[in-house]
């Protein structure tokens, strides 16, 4: 048990083996360098993204405005910021807006803003209601003229993403309403609301056709001007 030759046979096996240590060190140095480069690129990207998201132009595009304040992106007289829930967004060929960007201004309305515009009352029968019903709201042609100088086309979008195209000749030749009220009451979603494109059917019986019924969109949420 105490033979010195035995110790010489055992002790070399007890030393740690260092074969390949230099190669592993080189690999770890490369891994560390790659991680450092990746971290630097990530930091640069984050700084650039933050600068674009929070630049003065980006913040101005979506910043809320006080009632009556001119929107910095509008080309002429502008709209106040909505004070209630937005029920209508107008986009496309918009020249007077209160939201969006310099390249693509948008006009957003709450119900109070729509009802502050000159409105009409149209009493008429419709294919979707019983008896003669009174609807009120702004004329579509006045709404389009309020936000656009050069609209050539009009598309109406509903809450379920249904889209109908309305010729501008329709809203110029007839008193087509964007109705906000039925018999003096605001319309819930389950009853054509909150907004309903209404043609004056009783005053113009020729409008009672399939094509115009297709254009009489209810549950309106947006307009696109072209």
From TrEMBL:
Region (Disordered): 1-22
Entry-linked InterPro entries: OxRdtase_Mopterin-bd_sf
Protein name (Swiss-Prot/TrEMBL): Oxidoreductase
């Amino acid at each position: 048990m105490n033979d010195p030759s035995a110790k010489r046979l055992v002790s070399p096996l007890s030393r740690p083996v260092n074969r390949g240590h230099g190669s592993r060190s080189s690999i770890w140095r490369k891994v560390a360098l790659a991680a450092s480069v990746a971290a630097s690129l990530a930091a640069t990207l984050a700084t650039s993204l933050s600068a674009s998201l929070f630049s003065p132009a980006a913040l101005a595009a979506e910043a809320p405005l006080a009632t009556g304040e001119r929107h910095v992106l509008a080309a002429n007289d502008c709209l106040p910021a909505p004070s209630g829930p937005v029920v209508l967004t107008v986009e496309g060929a918009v020249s007077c807006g209160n939201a969006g960007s310099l390249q693509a201004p948008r006009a957003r309305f709450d119900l109070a803003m729509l009802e502050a515009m000159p409105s009409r009352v149209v009493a008429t029968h419709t294919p979707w209601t019983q008896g003669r019903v009174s609807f009120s709201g702004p004329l579509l042609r006045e709404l389009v003229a309020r936000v656009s100088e050069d609209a050539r086309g009009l598309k109406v979008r509903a809450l379920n993403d249904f889209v109908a195209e309305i010729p501008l000749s329709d809203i110029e030749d007839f008193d087509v309403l964007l109705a906000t009220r039925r018999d003096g009451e605001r319309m819930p979603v389950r009853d054509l609301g909150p907004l309903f494109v209404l043609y004056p059917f009783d005053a113009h019986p020729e409008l009672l056709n399939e094509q115009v019924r297709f254009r009489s969109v209810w549950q309106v949420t947006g307009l696109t001007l072209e």
